[in-house]
Amino acid sequence: xxxxxxxxxxxxxxxxxxxxxxxxxxxxxxxxxxxxxxxxxxxxxxxxxxxxxxxxxxxxxxxxxxxxxxxxxxxxxxxxxxxxxxxxxxxxxxxxxxxxxxxxxxxxxxxxxxxxx
Length: 117
Hints:
Layout: E1 2-7, E2 10-12, E3 18-26, E4 31-39, E5 46-52, E6 58-60, E7 68-73, E8 78-83, E9 92-100, E10 105-107, E11 111-115
Parallel strand pairs: 2-11
Antiparallel strand pairs: 1-3, 3-8, 4-5, 4-9, 5-6, 7-8, 9-10, 9-11
């Protein structure tokens, strides 16, 4: 199994920045991709960004392209999401997810991001 723990959420003003972290433990050698999703109140969970663990290949949702940057530190088994130019509509619980080579999916507990003045 893979365990995921997010951190770094909080309250930030519109236009501000925040960095989220997702620390993985357990069978990390089996990770294929890691992703960020988010869920706003009353809305479905939506995809934000994905990184392929071995190659570093990256995909972004159109809504965050140019503002968010996903990265990973293989040595620390940690994925990051650097968020710039935050908007109120970015307010959500942010979840990290890992898919293994056995196509098992794991989720973290989520971290709240609130963008408000």
